[in-house]
């Protein structure tokens, strides 16, 4: 009996508080258009505009990984011809290839480690 009284006086559990807050939010959704006035609402936008990659910048990204054109192409998921064209200035890289090179340029040590993790010596398959 004493134990039951002690439990009655304790604060609601995290789960109980979450359920209560979700119920209040659901009620607010049904009754009002002013959700931002009653609840904290945040909008986050990511700056995902990749840098422009000229031939020198592509080569620098590749060399920061100590990778051949073939390995770099495999890593980016593009053809070797595409990497060659980028480095010769025939065509510029676009889209996700630029975003990945942005990340490589930002933290080349991490990406060198990832490349080493992915490497499998030929003939050991």
Mean pLDDT: 88
Ranges where pLDDT stays below 50 over 5 or more residues in a row are: none
CATH topology of the largest domain: 434 Repressor (Amino-terminal Domain)
Order of helices and strands: HHHHHHHH
Briefly, what is this?
The chain has eight helices and no strands.
Provide an overview of this structure.
The chain has 125 residues and is an all-alpha fold. The chain folds into two domains: 35 residues, no CATH class; 64 residues, 434 Repressor (Amino-terminal Domain) (Orthogonal Bundle), CATH 1.10.260. The chain is 64% helix and 0% strand. The chain has eight helices and no strands. α4 crosses α6, α4 packs across α7 and α5 packs across α6. The N and C termini lie far apart (67 Å). The mean pLDDT is 88.
List the helices and strands and how they pair.
Blueprint: H1 2-9, H2 14-31, H3 35-38, H4 55-64, H5 69-76, H6 80-88, H7 95-106, H8 108-118
Helix pairs in contact: 4-6, 4-7, 5-6, 7-8
Throw out a few tags for this protein:
125 residues; mainly alpha; 8 helices
């Amino acid at each position: 009996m004493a134990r039951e009284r002690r439990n009655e006086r304790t604060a609601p559990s995290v789960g109980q508080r979450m359920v209560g807050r979700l119920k209040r939010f659901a009620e607010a959704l049904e009754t009002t258009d002013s959700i931002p006035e009653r609840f904290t609402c945040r909008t986050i936008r990511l700056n995902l505009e990749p840098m422009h990659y000229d031939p020198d910048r592509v080569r620098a990204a590749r060399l920061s990984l100590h990778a051949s054109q073939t390995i770099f192409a495999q890593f980016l998921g593009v053809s070797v011809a595409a990497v060659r064209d980028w480095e010769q200035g025939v065509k510029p890289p676009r889209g996700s290839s630029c975003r990945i090179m942005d990340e490589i340029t930002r933290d080349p040590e991490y990406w060198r480690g990832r490349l080493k993790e992915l490497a499998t010596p030929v003939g050991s398959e």
